[in-house]
Write a structure and sequence with these properties.
The protein is of the alpha+beta class. The chain has one domain (about 5-65). The protein is built from three helices and two strands; from the N terminus they run H-E-H-E-H. A two-stranded parallel ribbon has the order 1-2. Helix 2 (about 30-40) links the parallel strand 1 and strand 2 (about 40-45). It comes from marine sediment metagenome.
Length: about 70
């Protein structure tokens, strides 16, 4: 199976279903703007803690309820 980067994988996910909510994680901050422009709902800089991931998810759930 060919190796894909996160941007390519995210594009393929959105090609299948635009409703999918994607939190993108990368150590390469240069991809942040590209990922955000694709429609991701959140970005985490690697390495990140489980606590940061949970807080990001909770924040997104709170925004969705409004």
């Amino acid at each position: 199976m060919p190796v894909k980067d996160g941007i390519e994988a995210t594009k393929e996910i959105f090609d299948i279903d635009q409703k999918v909510k994607v939190i993108f994680a990368s150590a390469d901050m240069s991809v942040k703007e590209k990922a955000l422009s694709m429609g991701i709902v959140g970005f985490l800089s690697k390495p990140f803690s489980l606590e940061k991931l949970v807080k990001k998810i909770e924040s997104l759930i709170s925004k969705a309820r409004v």
